[in-house]
Design a protein that fits this description.
- 2 copies of one chain form a homodimer.
- Chain A has about 375 residues and is an alpha/beta fold.
- Chain A contains 12 helices and 12 strands.
- In chain A, strands 1, 2, 3, 4, 5 and 11 form a 6-stranded mixed beta sheet that branches. Chain A has a 6-stranded mixed beta sheet with strand order 8-7-9-6-10-12, with helices on one face.
- In chain A, strand 7, helix 5 and strand 8 form a beta-alpha-beta unit.
- In chain A, helix 4 runs antiparallel to helix 11.
- Chain A is globular, with a radius of gyration of 23 Å.
- Chain A starts with a strand and ends with a helix.
- At the A-B interface, strand 1, helix 1, helix 3, helix 9 and helix 10 of A face strand 1, helix 1, helix 3, helix 9 and helix 10 of B.
Chain lengths: ~375, ~375
């Protein structure tokens, strides 16, 4: 992790062999650097995790191999939940994580990833890049010695796998649902008993009936874990993750020590990763969904009653959190106002276009 | 436009003043390069055109100012429609354009931007980056001595400004509508008389009634041109541009002559531009829409009858074009199959999430 800086403040004019072109005298800053990146995710999530290799390759390609970022999956250097701390304290220079994992430390973290009934994926980029999102999240992350960059999105997630149909709010009562973060907090207001279970233990728990339901990501990732074999009902939408954004987080000092051109390269590599991750999910989910349905999965929309009660519970939660936490209130209010304006516009051209296309496709 | 290559194949270890760190012996490739970029758009389109400055700044920042791209608006070096040819023949190294402008040369160009009832913006990125889109378009562009990179999207556009309400297909008969490209070709099958008028002449033509209707982009750009003052009805969605993608096109030889790291930097800068353009439209359209409606604009959805007749006309057009043009058929078929799969998935989580959020917002 040593940073070897080279500055050719005065460079003699050199003629490249065969090129015959005089090189100008310029300052230059392409030090050899080796960084380590720890992801909160396993390699089996080849889209969320796969993005870190796209990111690292882009950085290496842009620097002729001078800036190398070695990537590590959850557990290789630190366990998935340890990525925030490992990046804060400089064990690694960069982490890939979903900030909402750390909402127990401070609910403000969740605003970097997704909150129930929050922004959809495109709106999230709009808030981050052309609203106040990145600026506000960085102000907050500074307190943790971190700087963040959006690195991709899963798209709107699925609501998960249920052993039995649920139709009313009464059906949620006592439901043991593997769901984390704020989604769990919202649903617990309606009687759900949120379960915290690592990814690898979901399948056997669902099979045995230790839990009644579990949510993961969407068709592409869920199919690989085989949840369809142990729970027939696949609900949508995952209203607690209308668009789950993944973050690159950087140790602030290490980031600030970089030459400006390397900082610009990291920014751009995160944009490459951002587009790639969302594109890969969008490209790969359809075939997985087809396969699930062909193998007997029963798709079910959450009922309007459940959606509305959950929406109400979410607003209560935001009110409670805002009363207790000034950071949360400030950033939530900013995002919420942005979102209201977004959907005002979204309902016009975007939504009516998709609506027609969806119906037209259904007609064949 | 000279390319000054510097390769330090063997570099003596140098100690930077005060740094005391030995620089390693490495090959390096950061030549000073000056390129020119010609856009097909005027500076007044500060999102579509504004993206070229974001793009050029990213390239400069990533190369410590070694790779400079000077940007020119339509008319400064060549008129907007001249950008393709100017890039082909190397007058400029890079252009920013909407490839569908050149569909008269070959309808295949349109598949790079938008076709009526085509992919929505996210689906377009998915097709470009994780489907066959970029590969197929580059195979086609190679025949024009070009290489392309997606550079941003407007989002689903609006259907434009109409002096009178139109409700049925019969109302389209003889309608003088300022609309270009394939949208015009589709609507002409329904009796519309497409008008080709430069942006600056639309306002007076609409005011005088020389034309009955005109489409441009969406609320943010349309408000600036003041169309609302001369036509009361603002229709949606612009079904001929479900997601209009803008392209960076590169002179193929100039691109191939670049060091690999500079090619990677251009790729990444295009991703930066891609996210920025869509984000800016998404962030700026809501306020413009509010202002239009507050000033009396009447929002109107196209009727189901008009949408369905247009959809049918579009399918006829694609059949005709496919029969005459093997390139079009090959790339259209690939995109069409991709799109069918996309909407199969889109209707599940994405669409139902947006649907609930739109309705919830309307309730206040």
């Amino acid at each position: 992790m040593t940073v070897e800086r080279r500055k050719f403040l005065k460079t003699a004019a050199l003629a490249g062999a065969g090129a015959g072109i005089a090189a100008p005298a310029i300052a230059q800053s392409s030090p050899k650097i080796q960084w380590r990146l720890a992801s909160s995710f396993p390699k089996s999530l080849d889209t969320i995790y796969g993005a870190v290799d796209i990111f690292a390759k882009a950085v290496s390609d842009m620097t002729d191999g001078n800036f190398k970022i070695q990537t590590f999956a959850a557990g290789e250097i630190v366990p998935g939940p340890g990525v925030l701390e490992a990046t804060q304290n400089g064990t690694v220079e960069v982490g890939e994580t979903a900030l909402y994992y750390f909402w127990g430390k401070d609910p403000t973290f969740a605003l970097g990833t997704a909150i129930p009934f929050g922004l959809n994926p495109r709106q999230q980029n709009a808030w981050f890049y052309n609203g106040d999102g990145n600026k506000l999240m960085d102000e907050f992350l500074k307190g943790y010695n971190l700087k963040g960059l959006p690195g991709g999105n899963t798209g709107t997630q699925m609501g998960g796998w249920f052993r039995k149909e649920i139709k009313t709010v009464a059906d949620l009562k006592g439901l043991k649902f593997r769901i984390g973060g704020m989604g769990g907090a919202v649903l617990s207001k309606l009687g759900v008993v949120p379960q915290s279970i690592p990814g690898g233990d979901i399948y056997p728990s669902l099979e045995k009936g230790t839990i009644d339901a579990a949510e993961w990501v969407g068709p592409y990732d869920d199919l690989k874990l085989g949840f369809n074999k142990v729970a027939p009902y696949y609900y949508y939408p995952g209203f607690w993750e209308g668009g789950a954004n993944l973050h690159y987080i950087f140790n602030l000092e290490k980031y600030n020590q970089l030459p400006k051109n390397y900082q610009a390269i990291l920014d751009a590599a995160a944009s490459v990763s951002n587009i790639w991750m969302q594109s890969k999910y969008d490209a790969d989910n359809p075939a997985a969904l087809k396969s699930l349905v062909a193998n007997g999965t029963k798709l079910r929309p959450f009922s309007q009653e459940i959606l509305e009660a959950s929406y109400k519970a979410a607003q209560e939660l935001y009110k409670e959190l805002s009363a207790k936490n000034a950071n949360f209130k400030k950033i939530y209010d900013n995002m919420h106002e942005f979102q209201n304006n977004e959907y005002l516009w979204w309902q016009v051209a975007e939504f009516t276009y998709d609506n027609f296309m969806v119906r037209q496709r259904a007609k064949g």
